[in-house]
Amino acid sequence: MVSNPTGGEAEQYRAGHYGAEPGSQLGALETYAAQAHGYLALGGDRLNQLAGLLRPAILESWLRSVRGGVDPLDDLDGRGLRGGDLQRYRDGHPITAVMPLVDKLLLQDIARIGLIVVVADQFGRVLSVHGTPDRVAAVAGTGLREGDDLSERRVGTNAVGLVVRTGRPVWVHGPEHFLQRMHQITGAAAPVHDPDGRLVGVLMIAGGVRVARPEILALVKAAATAAELDLALAAARTQPRGAGRASQDSGAAALADRAPTRLGLDVLGLGQPQLISDGDRLPVSQRQAEIMLLLAEHTEGLSADHLALLLDDTDLDNATIRAAMSRLRSVVGAHVFGSRPYRLRVPLVTDVEALRAALDSGDVDAAVRLYTGPVLPRSTAPGVVDIRDELRVRLRTAVLRSGDAAVLSRWTAGAEGRDDTPAWVAYRAAVDRGSPLYAQIEAKIRVLDRRLGADATQMQRFGS
Q: What distance lies between CA 209 and its chain's CA centroid?
């Protein structure tokens, strides 16, 4: 029987009393899931028995969790974003813009009936947990804490992690969770997408067995749909009437006319840098992104001469810097920047800062997921190159030291880790020698060794 941590007393129920989906009964589901955990503990060939005991989506998630090395007995640890780091990350996140709507649609009523609402980002990071204080405290021990990582790679099968993985609404009940510490909760979750169709967050209602009712999943899906419409309307307000996709200039004018209370900046990866102003996104030029990143890194401010040296190791004159700052003010707003020295007057949260916070907290898995690529990879600005190199070295060192198979798997699957022989060697050491994955990793290392040998021979041949 599954107790309800959000309701104090255990909720008793008979098999079949709550219909979760046509033809299923929660009592039978619990019995089968408990048997599945027994086979999971035995491992080996007994894992073949899981197929007849778990719903297909849950089975696939369990198998991914097994392959990823998640431990069903994993205890709650202290990793995650906390305090000011979490607050800054949350304030700069686009889903923050729809929280007033979520509060109106979900929080006010859900808290009164003893359930909680969890808001997570696109990676499964818990941004906030809402409910009465005793309910929020009760679920903290299961891992539903602000700043914690609910991705499937970190904690195995759960509703938020499944939404992040599949992009589809889902409910997960009691022992269907991969981790035993999560068996006391049921979660119903739905994705929130931005107007371009990208996942920006997850909404989840969690509690006891009542959450397995179809109307709860329908409620969270409706709230997520409303949030998506709210994001779409906000985006439309920044577009000229009749325009398909707002140009950078028209978007800049829309932002410059307002007085943003917080700003965000995404500079990791190969895509165009993005400025986030009160939840609205705007592409910015590389030079504009370079200046904002450098000012965010130097909160004390930069003189025109110092900024010039960080932007270009040739001789940039002050007139060029003044012109660049003038163009940037026309995009973001004049009040955002101070002068003499140049400095930020409005909080600016960058994805670089979020990545550093994950590394500082020891959450290497989150750091690898946040690292979508190098900092402004096409930039040659000396100050940006230093940030880029520092972050990459810190991240790679943390990955190699982690000994975490899931972390090493994600790193070696990315562009920078694909040919990183030491990372593959560390990955091999973190995997069971009898696993089929071990043989695949071994084969990759041999390919890299042969390639390295061929490259060395060619260098010798040409006298390098």
A: 28
